[in-house]
Amino acid sequence: MHPLIPLIGLAMLTGCASYQSRPLDPAASGAQLQARRLDNSQLQAFINNANLPASTPWNLDKLTMAALYYHPDITLARAQAESADAAIITAGQRPNPTLSVTPTWVSNLASAPPWLFASILSIPIETAGKRGYRIDRSRHLTDAASLRIADAAWLVRGRLRLALLDVYASREIVRLLQQQLQLEQAIDRQLQQQRSAGEIAETDLLAAQLGKQQVQLALTAAQKKQADSCVLLAAALGVPVAALAGISLDFGEFTQQPDLNAAATGSLQALALRQRPDVLASLADYAAAQSALQLEIANQYPNYQLNPGYTYNTGENRWSIGAGSIPLPVFNQNQGPIAEMAAKRQEAAQRFEALQLRIMGEIERAHASTLAMQVRWQAAQQVLQNRTVNLKLAQDLLQAGELDSHAVYVAELERLLAERGRLDVLVECQQTLATLETALRQPLSPVMATVLSVPALRKSP
User: Fold this and answer.
1) How many helices (DSSP H) and strands (DSSP E) are in the chain?
2) Phi and psi dihedrals of 329, rounded to 5?
């Protein structure tokens, strides 16, 4: 036994991990965040790996790749999945044996050596498959954490889509208000000429000037909202707003007529209730709760501990087999932890049911909104078409000398207001489709179907 002690100590030292300090520097971290750019070579390589060529414009899909690369919600979800992976190692570890050594010096021995030496080796043995239940529970929690990366990616994409839509809407509103202001200024100049000629009253001119001032105020507010929308888009990407400077955004997905017929069907809803990432993660949580309950049931059965030992006593070597020790379940049979885990399993089941019910509500509300928006979209299209026809008729009458330019300005202004109303309905339609896509987690483009899968998202850029 004496030579084994230094060998055991040496093995313990060589198998130990060393601590590496990694302090956080707020100044360095802030500078790194401010340095983020969309032309980063590593980001471009990450985008190229998703089969998106470098020539692809900065549309929703390409911006989604940038958000997956930069956004803190994704990196946090990956870190949580890595923590869950590490917990599997902890769950699979077998308990270490313990060695106790008690050297004793006897001062009044005359003929024998004055030293007594005793050592006991304790070897714990787990019973009833407890290690396997711990590993199962950790693996289920790891699956749940991995699935929540995909769920976080979907939520990031949904917020990004709404932010990009807000940028598009604010730019279009600024453009339309600038055109409206030009018309109001033209009308004001014409009315001033008529007022100078005594053809209209002062009150008519003041009313027109008030309308022009209101448009100027609306344009100022719209320009501020346009700047705010760029800030929100940068936050949705996880970059500073300076990273958007010089970037040409592609709004092609929003300028097209919305496909309102792509509403939720029963099959898509049923698919979402079974295969949404958060649904699968909730199922994994329930499976982990079941493994935890199995572990506590197994804990009813005590572990066994072997205690072989060696004693050197006044020149004699004494070896003990140490049949072992077993705790006696006299005062409790682990009923408390079993009851707790049974209640936790029931809680997980209720959480799963509540999640499915919430998903059903999200999809049904989005579906109902798409049906309602179809009527509004058709009405807005019809109004714009009528105002366009009226404008063309007014222009023809102006050329024929049957109408003055003021009537044409008014017809053009009415058409511009109809285009603004159509834009508002278009934005609402796109918001509804974004809500529906996020609720269904469908449909996906072929590129995004691969990018937003769990295996792809588990890999750090």
Assistant:
1) 14, 5
2) -75, 70
Helix (H, G, I), strand (E, B) or coil at 118: strand
Residue 14 carries which side chain, given as an amino acid letter? Answer: T
Residue 58 CA to residue 63 CA, distance in Å, equals: 6
> H helices of 400-458, where?
405-440, 446-451, 454-458
What length does the chain have? 461
Residue 4 CB coordination number (10 Å) = 12
- pLDDT tens for the chain, 461 residues long, are 455 555 555 555 556 778 889 999 999 999 999 999 999 999 998 988 888 877 789 999 999 999 999 999 999 999 999 999 999 999 999 988 888 888 877 777 666 667 777 888 888 889 999 999 999 999 999 999 999 999 999 999 999 999 999 999 999 999 999 999 999 888 888 888 877 877 777 777 787 788 889 999 999 999 999 999 999 999 999 999 999 998 999 998 898 777 766 555 667 788 888 989 999 999 999 999 999 999 999 999 988 888 888 887 767 788 887 766 787 787 888 999 999 999 999 999 999 999 999 999 998 888 888 888 888 999 999 999 999 999 999 998 988 888 888 888 889 999 999 999 999 999 999 998 888 888 888 765 666 777 777 777 777 67
- Give the amino acid at 360: M
| pTM for the model | 0.86
CB 227 within 8 A of CB 25: no
Which of 388, 132, 440, 129 lies closest to 265 in space, CA to CA? 440
Q: What are phi and psi for residue 94, nearest 5 degrees?
A: -85, 145
User: If you write DSSP's letter for every residue of 125-165 in order, what string do you get?
Assistant: E--TTHHHHHHHHHHHHHHHHHHHHHHHHHHHHHHHHHHHH
> In angstroms, rounded to a whole number, what is the distance separating the alpha carbons of residues 128 and 302?
9
Distance CA 419, CA 421 (A): 5
* Rounded alpha-carbon distances, angstroms, from residue 325 to 120, 296, 328: 13, 21, 9
C-alpha distances (whole Å) from 445 to each of 35, 74, 346, 424, 458 are: 31, 20, 38, 26, 20
Distance (Å, rounded) from C-alpha 224 to C-alpha 174?
10
Tokens of 332: 């409790």
Domains of the chain: 42-458 (1.20.1600.10)
